[in-house]
UniProtKB/TrEMBL annotation:
<protein>
    <recommendedName>
        <fullName>V-type proton ATPase subunit C</fullName>
    </recommendedName>
</protein>
<dbReference type="GO" id="GO:0000221">
    <property type="term" value="C:vacuolar proton-transporting V-type ATPase, V1 domain"/>
</dbReference>
<comment type="similarity">
    <text>Belongs to the V-ATPase C subunit family.</text>
</comment>
<keyword id="KW-0007">Acetylation</keyword>
<dbReference type="GO" id="GO:0005765">
    <property type="term" value="C:lysosomal membrane"/>
</dbReference>
<comment type="function">
    <text>Subunit of the V1 complex of vacuolar(H+)-ATPase (V-ATPase), a multisubunit enzyme composed of a peripheral complex (V1) that hydrolyzes ATP and a membrane integral complex (V0) that translocates protons. V-ATPase is responsible for acidifying and maintaining the pH of intracellular compartments and in some cell types, is targeted to the plasma membrane, where it is responsible for acidifying the extracellular environment. Subunit C is necessary for the assembly of the catalytic sector of the enzyme and is likely to have a specific function in its catalytic activity.</text>
</comment>
<keyword id="KW-0375">Hydrogen ion transport</keyword>
<keyword id="KW-0406">Ion transport</keyword>
<comment type="subunit">
    <text>V-ATPase is a heteromultimeric enzyme made up of two complexes: the ATP-hydrolytic V1 complex and the proton translocation V0 complex. The V1 complex consists of three catalytic AB heterodimers that form a heterohexamer, three peripheral stalks each consisting of EG heterodimers, one central rotor including subunits D and F, and the regulatory subunits C and H. The proton translocation complex V0 consists of the proton transport subunit a, a ring of proteolipid subunits c9c'', rotary subunit d, subunits e and f, and two accessory subunits.</text>
</comment>
<keyword id="KW-0813">Transport</keyword>
<dbReference type="GO" id="GO:0046961">
    <property type="term" value="F:proton-transporting ATPase activity, rotational mechanism"/>
</dbReference>
<dbReference type="InterPro" id="IPR004907">
    <property type="entry name" value="ATPase_V1-cplx_csu"/>
</dbReference>
<dbReference type="InterPro" id="IPR036132">
    <property type="entry name" value="Vac_ATP_synth_c_sf"/>
</dbReference>
<dbReference type="Pfam" id="PF03223">
    <property type="entry name" value="V-ATPase_C"/>
</dbReference>
Length: 378
């Protein structure tokens, strides 16, 4: 997706002049970025508000936003290429939401202090994160149990469940003396099996073998013998590279397994729709809260840097990828007069009020908004 640079610079005679200067430098004579004004309302200025709180909450919210997005991709499974169309904020795509950002007065009343607004957002993020953990745990357990059953019914004849392959008619049942064995024979060994199976033990019933099922490599054969010959038959079969599968035909157990798989599959389908809807709603909530925290940080740092009364223009730049370096140089030329020390500040220095946690410091307020929220490309 897209990267944005959220910056602010002090107002000239008017904030409009600050905006016009940026537009002239970055768009009218070249094509360095696509710009939008970023509207931050007049928030309550309380200088005792601790700037670090915003930093922690933004990191926490960014983590929640990414977790919800990634989990939605996981839940969509084979349809994960459609995840992007489900990652919306207020019903619009993320680029549109950020570009047209408007402060949500109902959720985050500006009459409240910055600290209170920050706490509202923090509680919201914690609630979403806790709910996600609970919902993901329940759905993952269901999905895991279903996958375990599905794995039993897939794979090689040497390991997979045989319950859905065999039928009651394939077995001699309720006999005191006779038993039906199931043997996996490599396809290359079919001829050897037909020649030798009757001689693998003394009491094998002649012409009793039958091919029940085949996969790519092997076939599943049944053979009937006397119970007293089981051990000898197994030993000789192993010597001839035939694999006897331990299997007891039990209709009740087989029926219970099939019913369990049907139940789990039905439950997964029932939970899928409501879970995706919850993820869509709460991704939107978390993303909106995250952008509001970005706005809070821009406001606080702008006040700390440019002073009172509040007079700055927040601006959203969508850099042209090919011209990022040039854009950075143009911005530096435009705003270097704001802080001559910016070029020599060591990012490892801990200076209160400065945005050094991102390992980047410029003479203007700067925050990156990275909308690449997934660990894979869609």
């Amino acid at each position: 997706m897209t990267e944005f640079w959220l910056i602010s610079a002090p107002g000239e005679k008017t904030c409009q002049q600050t905006w016009d200067k940026l537009m002239l430098a970055t768009t009218r004579t070249n094509n360095l970025s696509t710009n939008n004004k970023f509207n931050i309302p007049d928030l309550k200025v309380v200088l005792v508000f601790y700037y670090d709180v915003n930093t922690k909450e933004e990191l926490s919210l960014a983590h929640v936003v990414k977790k919800v997005a990634q989990y939605m991709a996981d839940v969509l499974e084979d349809s994960r290429d459609k995840v992007q169309e489900n990652l919306l904020a207020n019903g619009v795509d993320l680029v549109t939401y950020i570009s047209r950002f408007q402060w949500d007065m109902a959720k985050y009343p500006i009459k409240q202090s910055l600290k209170n607004i920050s706490e509202i957002i923090s509680k919201q993020a914690t609630q979403i994160d806790n709910d996600l953990k609970a919902r993901a745990s329940a759905y993952n357990n269901l999905k895991g149990n279903l996958q375990n059953l599905e794995r039993k019914n897939a794979g090689s004849l040497l390991t997979r469940s045989l319950a859905d392959i065999v039928k009651k008619d394939d077995f001699v049942l309720d006999s005191e003396y006779l038993v039906t064995m199931l043997v996996v024979v490599p396809k290359t060994g079919y001829a050897d099996w037909q020649k030798t199976y009757e001689t693998l033990a003394e009491m094998v019933v002649p012409r009793s073998t039958k091919l029940l099922f085949e996969d790519i490599d092997s076939g599943l054969f049944s053979v009937t013998l006397f119970r007293k010959a089981i051990d000898d038959f197994k030993h000789k079969a192993r010597e001839n590279k035939f694999t006897v599968r331990e299997f007891l035909y039990n209709e009740e157990e087989m029926k219970a397994d099939k019913e369990e798989m049907t139940r789990l599959s039905t439950d997964k389908k029932k939970q899928f729709g409501p879970l995706v809807r919850w993820l869509k709603v709460n991704f939107s909530e978390a993303f909106i809260a995250w952008i509001h925290i970005k706005a809070l940080r821009v406001f606080v740092e702008s006040v700390l840097r440019y002073g009172l009364p509040v007079n700055f223009q927040a601006m959203l730049l969508q850099p042209n990828k090919k011209n990022m370096k040039k854009l950075r140089e143009v911005l530096n030329d435009l705003y270097k007069h704001l802080d001559s020390s910016a070029a020599i500040i060591d990012a490892a220095m801990d200076i209160p009020g400065l945005n050094l946690s991102q390992q980047e410091y410029y003479p203007y307020v700067y925050y990156k908004i990275d909308c690449n929220l997934l660990d894979f490309k869609v």
